[in-house]
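Let us practice reading a record.
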Amino acid sequence: MTIKVIHREFTEQAMLKYEGQPGVAEILKKIREEGYYDRGVSVYVNETSTGRDYLRFDCFEREPHYHYHHLHELRDAGVEISMEYLRISGYAECVTMNGMWHQLPFDSVANGDIRDWVLDRLGRRIAPMLREAGAAALADAVDQDVVARALAEAEPYVYATAPSAGRD
């Protein structure tokens, strides 16, 4: 298992390289029609041998959220991907993929800074979250001591991009 941290920005230029992937057309439409913009760090939990990401935590300024990536098991089974978008509180989106939770909004009022929450969840709940994402074998192989060392190494990068009020 690999945990990686990447700074991301939602701009048209950044998103064009993902065009054709599930959900990207909707993001591009929001950017083009509504001037949507967001940024922050994403924390990925990947299977090292395949590079597949099973969990992703998007620590964004505007719409923090996280993902269970069931996409891999669906594609491996030859199942056509069907996504449904559900609006919550007028702005946050919840997304299901073939009836399974895929993207869940983060409640910063109840949970505080998403970066704190992510590090805590990965430190304490990574195995059950991987199982939820369809990666039972990866979950069974989790070594919490190794995870703790990886999180300690990743932590400075998680906090490297501080949330700000505006767009630079």
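A brief commentary: DSSP finds seven helices and seven strands in the chain.
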